[in-house]
Amino acid sequence: MSMPMLLITGTFRAKGLKPDGDTVTFTPDQVDDWKLVPGARPVVPKWDGSASIRLEGIDALETHYGQKDLLSGVQHQPLDLAHAAADTLLGLIGFTDFHRPVVEAGHAHQPDDEKIISTIPEVTHGYVLTRGADVFGRCVALVGRDFQPAPNGYQVEVDEQMLKNTANYKLMEAGLVYPTFYSEFPELLRASLAAAAAAAAAHEPKKGVWARDATTALPGVQVTDISSLTDEATGAVILPKLFRRLKDYLELDRDPSQPALSCFRAYLAGASDDQYYLQGKPEVYRGMHHVVEVTGGNTVRMTHGPEEIVFVEK
Questions:
Q1: What is the pLDDT of residue 31?
Q2: 8, 68, 98, 157: which sits with the fewest CB atoms below 10 Å from its CB?
């Protein structure tokens, strides 16, 4: 199945913002082009016409997730790999130099440490290929800079070669992101991204996240508190969607006498509205408890790899 995507040309900006490995800020050359984005949900631009672009088909390790006023505040996954994805993305869209604040040794990482304080050049020109916006008003898109496949405002049937010219594919090929697929993204393009991920994981040595990935590894990841997932030296490298669910769960007011993850699967069943298909199975599953197992009260793993899961569009 293929699906036409709207091509919009414009500029990328990073200075004063907190881009990560799968989210950047984009301003169309013609701001009214946001109104052309298909789908039931509108893109919600800022006052200057810019909007967040959530890169289609990929999920990068979190550099800043959560809210300051919650128990563990804003948290991150191991930052060496999270920054590798973010820095590579900035390079792919044309920034030749960029800097974050200098953090002195021994100081705790803060959300504002992720803010880009300078870039060369100030902006870069490129394009997005989009099929719609997500529930947060972000434009979900393939992102490119070179080899623009069509003029601005055209609907494009994206083939595999067009996909391979995008930052989405190149990040997957480098092993810096995980595949995370949604049902309306064409199957052909999902398969191409999954193959790139598999090649990165099979490479000797394994590339990027795959060298340390523990998402499905036996016996699983031991989680006693949030530091099990965030510590620079020992934090587990796992699928970001699983990290986000764990982080949210660990914020809850739980019985301290019970193992850390004793109710995690129940939480996934009751508090999550994730719906998805599993490879080779026709039914829709509701809740990630179907693909997550907990043993011993504090050891967690997914029973299916991310490339086997296709989430239903919300």
A1: 96
A2: 68
